[in-house]
Design brief:
The chain is α/β, with parallel strands linked by helices. Helix content is about 45%, strand content about 15%. It has 5 helices and 5 strands. The chain has a 3-stranded parallel sheet with strand order 4-3-5, with helices on both faces. It is globular, with a radius of gyration of 13 Å.
């Protein structure tokens, strides 16, 4: 969707507060990788994976929005390549090894 994302934009997307960029519907994904999710939620979202789940449970009932889809890493990479509205997070070294993926934001270790 964009050439780069700010941390604030990424947080808003994953919290379900930003649904479109220009006319592209955003569809965030999360890999089924507990260590990666823990790092992502701690470093970028400033919350635990459990708090994120609680947030989305409330959002589902309140707003009818679905949480980011969770998929095994290989499936997530396939989805990221074929759908311009898909966003996901993976380890930086894995992203660099995947041709055709654009890196929109790098979250550094604290």
């Amino acid at each position: 969707p964009e050439a780069k994302l700010t941390p604030t934009q990424a947080r808003r997307i994953y919290m379900g507060e930003k649904l479109f960029i220009k006319d592209v519907r955003l569809k965030p994904m999360a890999p089924k990788d507990d260590a990666l999710k823990a790092a992502f939620f701690a470093r970028l979202m400033n919350m635990s994976s459990d708090k994120f789940k609680i947030h989305w449970l409330a959002k589902l009932f309140r707003d009818g929005l679905e949480p980011p889809e969770s998929a095994p890493p290989a499936q997530m990479l396939r989805e990221l390549r074929k759908d311009t509205g898909r966003l996901g997070f993976i380890w930086l070294e894995d992203a660099r090894a995947e041709p055709g993926l654009r890196i929109l934001l790098v979250v550094e270790a604290p």
